[in-house]
Every structure is written in structure tokens, then in C-alpha cells.
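Example 477.
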Amino acid sequence: MKFWFIVGSQAMYGEETLRQVEADAKEIANGLQLPFPVEYKVTAKSNDEIVRIIKEANYDDECGGIITFCHTFSPSKMWINGLAMLQKPWLHFHTQFNESIPNEAIDMDYMNLHQSAHGDREHGFIGARMRMSRAVVAGYWKDPQVQKKIGDWQRAAVGSLFSKELKIVRFGDNMREVAVTEGDKVETQIKLGWQVNTWAVGDLVKEMDAVTEAEIDVLMKEYESCYDICTDDLDAVRYQAREEIAIERILKRVGAKAFSNTFEDLHGMRQLPGLATQHLMAKGYGFGAEGDWKTAGLTAVVKAMYPDGNTSFMEDYTYDYKHEVILGSHMLEVDPGIAADKPRIEVHPLGIGGKEPPARLVFEGIAGKAKVLSLIDAGGRMRLIVQDVVCEKPFQDMPNLPVARATWKPMPNFLTGLECWIVAGGAHHTVLSYDITDEAVQDFARIMNLELVCINENTTTVGLERDLMLGDILYRR
Ligand code: MN
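Predicted structure in complex with manganese (II) ion:
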């Protein structure tokens, strides 16, 4: 992915000034240290030039979005027709080539050249007037803090484009009677682009039967190199390898980057996929248990935004009111991408579902600041709920808990954090991310036009309820 730098100006300044604008713009584009490169494209001087470059940006699959900056004044009526057809994320970078005003060198030529203080206000007006979805970042272009904000937006832009093409495979339906994992798949596709469809568990079993022992041997070698095998029941581990190979084969055939399944629909399967699902998550696939395709999709999107990050499907499991922490885990499927130490492969009975004891990875999650994200269907719209949390080292070793787990404190404090989450309708399933920032969350929600509810150190229950009421007015249809 590349981001296109489009610099606003106009013809009346003359050749010499426009040449300087172009040279400065190239220096800015090349000087930005960002997750994805920025390429100078054009100094836009007319309606036709702007329409042309926006059309190209829309249809170039490698263009992640446009970054605009008005080095000089650039009259905004020239921009209306182009912006009206923009289909890529837009960041208005309100910067200036020079950091300071030079005492001796400043004259009227300098003033004509370095005009973003008013040129970018004209540009900002048309964005506001057209009610365009765009990020605005102000600051000197060499400032690392400023570049960090642009980087956050780039990640959100890449996530949004990934989202528009995301396919999610559901093996079986949702867990029976559960409400929060349901949702309007048509609305989701209109809003987020996700193509959510079902594949029969029987077809997965057929695919599993076709997996050869030699193929399983290869994957077993990979398990040995990534994990400590702490079981004698290698047959159970090999069965997970068989499941993983078959699931991935179907995902690749469909072109899907996320999947869901449910322990209630394993017809013909001997084990609930545990290790299989965990290793697939480590490879970058999104996952949601109990048929939770919304969390599967959201996990995949966050992984696409932070390919080298620490992201996992997660579930709020049980509380310690005395230590004021949430123990997060799942019956099996926690992503080894958040493991603090080398995961162990173990085999234990599941307790529900009536299947054979499945092999799974067991580990502790890493400590540090993180966020939990939940996407719910609020009726006619999707609501993204994001809460800041602090993951902690566990205060006890829990030797008889045979699943991967993480422990965290929710913000703004334990009890208010719990109350806010419940009031907002956040699910028990979440995406746990150690990487995603406030800016990236806001940028993603703005690009996708999602209702966003943030719960952080500044949140109060009164403020949150007001936000939810405003959301109801804004998004009700
Ligand atoms: Mn669950």
C-alpha cells in the first residue's frame, strides 16, 4: 500500500513558485517516517487535475488513501467535484514546509509561498461544508508526534480497505439462543464490506478426511518448533493438525481471512478445534467462537492493521473483585500472539460439548496497556465499543486452569469500567489489542461511519449515557 500526496495550489503564482511547491512537497513526502510510504503525485491547480487524480486514486488497488496539503492558497471550488467522488480515505495534513518564520528572509515572496495557515483553512472549509469524512492532522512535518498520528491513520485506512474485501467463513450457525453474537449480515456488508457466509461442517469433515498423514507430519514439525509439546497424547495433537489443514484449505479456496465455528455444531468432528484455531490465528486469520462472525471479522481487521502486533480473540470470563481484575480466556481459542512465554501444547477434557479432549495451547498473556474492542449490532446500526485496559501479571498461578489466559483492569477504574461496558451493551467476546491507538480507533470508525463508544480514564457513567443517547439520535433510522 502507498499513500498519495496531493498538494493544493493554483496557476496564478507562476512557474517558479509552483516549481518550489513541488520540490518542497517531494521533500515532505520523502521525509515522513511512516508504516506505509507516501508518494508525491501532483500539485493540483485546477478542477480537471483534481478530478483526474481522485479518479485514479479510487481505482488504484495499491492506493491506501490520499493526503492533501495546501502549500499555497488553493481555491476550494476547484476541489468540489473531485472530493465528491472520492472513495478512498482522506487525511488533510495541515503542515508547513518551514518550522519557523525566518526573520531576515521573510518578504512578500515568502508569504505567497508559505500560505498553508490560510490555504489549509479554505481547504478545511470545503471538507466541513461537504461533510466529508476525513482526518485532520496539524503540525510540523518533521515532528515525530505528528508523524505518529499520520501513521495511526494509515493503519486505519489499510484496515478499512481490508475490511471492504473481507470474507468470513462460518462453519455452522451461532450458538443456540445467544443474542450478542447475532447480527444483520446485510447491514454489515453495506457498512463494512464483510461477506459473511456459511459452509457446512460436513464439508469440513470431508476435507479433513482428505488430509494425508504426510501433511500432518509437516505441520507437527511446525508445532514442535513454535511450541513445547507437553502431552503424550500425540494422536490428539495430530487430530488438531488435520483440522487446521482442512480449515485453512477451505479458507484459502474461498479467499477468506476469518472464520467462526461453534462447539454445538461439530457434526462428525472428534474434537473442537483448539490448537488448530490458535495456530491459524497466529498465521493472521481472524476468529470468533460460538459462531461469533462479528468478532472474527474485527479480529482480522485489527490483525491487518498491525500484522506484527499482539492481537487476540478474547472473552471476559470471571472476576476477582478483591484484586479488581478480569480474568479473560476462552474454552480453548486464545491467540498465541499475546503469549508472554512459549506456549505449551496440552490435552485436557473440555467439560462441555461431549467431544474428545482437545489439544490446545496454554500460556499467560503479556502485561501492558491494551484495548478491548467489541462490535455489536445495536439495531439498524453497528456500534464499536472500545475500552482501555491494563493487562497485569497474574497474582496467582492457577495450576488447574488448562487454558490460555490474560488478566486485566478496565478503565477508568474496575467497577465504573464494568458498569460502562454493561451500559453500552459490550459483548463478552472482544478483540484484545496491545497495539491499536485512540487515533487509529477514531480514524477507523470515522472512515467506516460506525458509531464509536470509547471507555477510557476520562469516562464517567453520566458522560457515557449522554454519548449513547446522542448515538441513538445520530444513527437511528
Ligand atoms: Mn465464548
